[in-house]
Amino acid sequence: MAKYTILNSPAVPNMPWQDRPADLGDIPVWRYTENPIIGRNPVKNVARIFNSAVVPYEDGFIGVFRAERKDGIPFIYLGRSKDGIHWSFEEDRINFVDENGKTFMPLYAYDPRLVRIDDKYYIIWCQDAYGASIGMAVTTDFKTFTRLENPFLPFNRNAVMFPRKIHGNYMLLSRPSDSGHTPFGDIYVSESPDLVYWGKHRHVMGKAPEWWESVKIGAGAAPIETSEGWLLFYHGVTGTCNGFVYSIGGAILDIDEPSRVKYRCKTFLLTPENWYEERGFVPNVCFPCATIHDSATGRIAVYYGAADSYVALAFTTLDEIVDYIKENSVTREDDTELGRR
Length: 341
Ligand code: BMA
Description:
Blueprint: E1 30-31, E2 46-57, E3 60-69, E4 74-81, E5 88-89, E6 96-97, E7 109-117, E8 120-128, E9 132-139, E10 145-148, E11 156-161, E12 170-176, E13 187-192, E14 199-205, E15 216-219, E16 224-226, E17 229-240, E18 243-253, E19 261-264, H1 275-278, E20 286-294, E21 299-306, E22 310-317, H2 318-327, H3 333-336
Parallel strand pairs: 6-10
Antiparallel strand pairs: 1-22, 2-3, 3-4, 4-5, 7-8, 8-9, 9-10, 11-12, 12-13, 13-14, 15-17, 16-17, 17-18, 18-19, 20-21, 21-22
Beta-D-mannopyranose (BMA) is lined by residues 51, 110-111, 181, 246, 282, 285, 287, 305, 308.
């Protein structure tokens, strides 16, 4: 019998999956043995795909992919897959349009997240808005992608939408930043009745004294609604003499007031260890952007960018990850308070 349950989310019996290896030891997340699932030069004119997001769609999966083109500029490409592991990509970047159907492209677009709310799919990414900030678009058919108003002023990154409204409002996590490689950063949540006006900004959680997340943190995958609260996979960054190291962390947020952190794992869940995480365009990066999860079994697949060069996959189950986060949890006042000052 499962201890915990995934709420308001379908069964996805065809999701990618491998069982926990017998010799894994005290580690709550295990890598797909055939990682990386997307290698170099995956599409014409694209050098690398990484930091990308996927959802179940029709009888398979669909995703929005950060594609670094051969001129070095990132855009978002659409990909489709039957099994969530082998992906085929459209040859051209997604053509975003404005409310009149006219092409309206950002100067660049990266780190997309993808979330379904009712029958609409929202793409949220980082782009230029006279400085690095957040772009958003909506689609119902993955053919027409209509831009929405940019939710925030610059500078901001790592915006991640909740998969349902809370207090009747859409909820968006984000990480206010600077225009460069940002040496600071906490996660905030903002709400909107209409996806145009955003407010009620609350602090969710900050960088922590634990060294692996002592420089900055940022939301990763869209939160998973569970019987224990919103399960959030995020990234935590430490600084070394050779630059930043990005690891995957886990927290559980209050279901009605997600600015309150119920549990926060003091250890990372996954940190760069394998060649595709340690070696690449930017070494030592594990950057989660999506999960696929099956409410029937509690299985969770985490999609993460590796070394700004590849897409990789790791697995866990709801029971294992929630117990691990709880057993290793430390929360401080700025985590558990409402986040309003
Ligand atoms: C962050 C973002 C990510 C990237 C990471 C490591 O600032 O730009 O896209 O994966 O740096 O380079």
